[in-house]
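Entry: Protein-glucosylgalactosylhydroxylysine glucosidase
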Amino acid sequence: MAEGERDPGVFTATALPGDPRLLPTLTNAFLGTRAFRDILHAAGVYSGAAGDTHRADVPSPLGLRMAAPGDHRPAESFTLNTWTGTFSHTIQSPGYTATHQLYAHHSLVHLMAFSITIRRLDSSTHPITVQLQSLFVPQSQDLDLTMGPDFQGAHYIYGQTLVPEVEGGPRPTVHMLWTPIPQWLTLGGEERERRWEFLTAVAGSEEEAKRSYSAGLALVAAGSLLRSHIHAWAALRRGCSVELDGPLALRQALHGCLYYLLSAIPPRDSPAAPFHGISPGGLSNGTRGEDYWGHVFWDQDTWVFPNILLLRPEAARAMLQYRVRTLEGARRNAQEQGCEGAKFPWESAATGREVCPEEIYGAQEIHVSGDVLVAFEQYYCTTQDQKLFREDGGWELVEAVARYWCSRMVWSEEEQLYHIRGVMPPDEYHSQVDNSAYTNAVAQRSLNFAADLARDLRLPVPEEWEDRARKIKVPFDEERKYHPEYDGYSPGEPVKQADVVLLGFPLMHPMSAEVRRNDLEMYEPVTDPAGPAMTWSMFAVGWLELKEPQRAWSQLEKCFSNITEPFKVWVENSDGSGAVNFLTGMGGFLQVILFGFTGFRITRSSLLFDPAFPDDITQLSISGISYLGSKLEVTITREEMRMEVTETCRDPPAPALEAVLESGRRFPLGEG
């Protein structure tokens, strides 16, 4: 970084946004909150039945504000540091500074912590006091909480959620320990500097909560609590490093996306606790009436997953295992629709049953089951991890979704093709349509993958899978050479969001460059400019594919109206409506960099690459790309592309890689 240049990974402001939803989130795989908020959420802890299922609010001791006493109004600053995974609030007074630093610990995932540090700046000897303004009350609208005995100086509450997701289903239990918080902290007259540490441990069992709190106390005693968090977070960031030379706003957006997305995934050394999926607004949001109640959609599988797969395949596997764990609920959904196999819910919580509050989406937006299978296919092609499918439930899921698609199709005698009728495509402005191009293409891809996987696992391939994949209708206009969104779509009809353009990427549905261009030209002008943030990313990827980087840039630029200042929190829609901390939009944006600028495409036999940059970008470096057990570092400039194998898995041994150019020249890629 050049001298005097702003650090693109540190966001500092002297005032907070007027809308508290735009404050930064602090999360790890199990706990999440927003800066200065009086509630937190624990992964997988939902309360409420069916469509009322929402993340249970856990009262948070972390939601306090530090203030200087009296009428004095000192200078203040607020900083989100994406390199350390911390948020801080600093008061700058004549004679002293006071800093409040907050984080979700990245290796002790049941622990959140904050510290207050007062530092004397002059030679005075009078006491210095700061006030801690807390909204914390140990009560919840979603949990039946009871006070327990103190433990190692911490207060203790525990209780169950009030209402199970399904009748007779489990009601998760929450156990919380926290360091008591005084109203005032004072630096003595003889002291130059002092730091006070406050811990909050939350877990599903008393034993785990106490173990995490004790581990935190031991690190406090050793003076290494914050250091241990920063070390774990920095290791993750280093292993998923994405850097580009380009406009500052683009680099800031990139680091913001990496911070919020990587905060949402399980750390490498976390215990084997189940992962509970990624919702559009993340773990920090999702109370009743907010951010889709914390439910998991296709947003996880289509928009977030590909990035995580490329950079952290073990975290991607945990995301897939969430779907495996909810397979029984998906089977019940299919049954209730009169179908076979498994139909994943449009909105999922803990059980896999449909929890969307509006019936139309759960009944008609069925492409989500195909989206789940595309994620499984991408994972399989990138890792060749057969254990997930042979031993850990992956094959049962793939087979169940294939059976669902077969039972959902009907044969058209007139067209001599299979139809899927009465659906809502990704474009939610239309419902009850027949033969959604995206839905049918993702069903076709599901069936092809299921058949290929069965062969790899040496299992019989049902004839109907291949027959239906061959004969399913994917609407195509031979005259205009483009894909109508569904049967009866008229060119010029408004579209809510990316739909047909997804056929090109991520589905890689076979088509010529002419058809790809026509699809982009047809839908770009009629897509709602106020639609959800991830849309423009997919138009950008399409134009990059066609080597029109400036058209791609004009689409990518639209995303910036969804990025709020000063902490780069995304909103779903540019008018501020919809989900906040919109990980879906960030996932789409990151795919432009990881798959658009590089041209990476995951196929059965290889990882293809074909870079293209807009004019303002001169270099892109990505370290930690995972492919077939090897780690790759890739640097792309306008003149050249460098690839280095930095790490190779020994157990099981990773296959030898080689780079193959279009000319046929081959370059073996050994480690180093």
